[in-house]
TrEMBL record:
UniProt keyword annotation of tRNA processing present: no
Transmembrane segments: 13-34
Entry keyword annotation includes Transmembrane: yes
Taxonomy of the source species: Eukaryota, Metazoa, Ecdysozoa, Arthropoda, Hexapoda
Protein name (record): Uncharacterized protein
Amino acid sequence: MCPTIILDDNDDVLMITGAAGGTKITTAVALLIVKHLWFNMDLKSAMDDKRIHHQLFPMQITFEGVFSTEGLHLVEGLHDIGHNYTIQQTDGFAAATSISTHRIDGVTGSSDKRRPGGVSYLY
């Protein structure tokens, strides 16, 4: 599940997130946090963006779907330095659910397109 609560310097909640999906949970949650909080993507865009997962054992990187030209450079670059990889065409990645207060648009919530569902919250 990897339930994660991120607080700001004043101990106010910035983001709450978690996911379902076996071994791909931790990378899905980490990518979502990085894209939303560090790269300042809105929560829904960060949630829906393509994902990368490295299993470590076996030593294999899995890329979700077809990447842009820049993404393909990443795939090729990792392959050139010895990484094995597969490009998965189905939504077999972990499905996350999140709520955030990080951006100026107030409280936002998002459920993952990789699994049916929706978001509702009271403020």
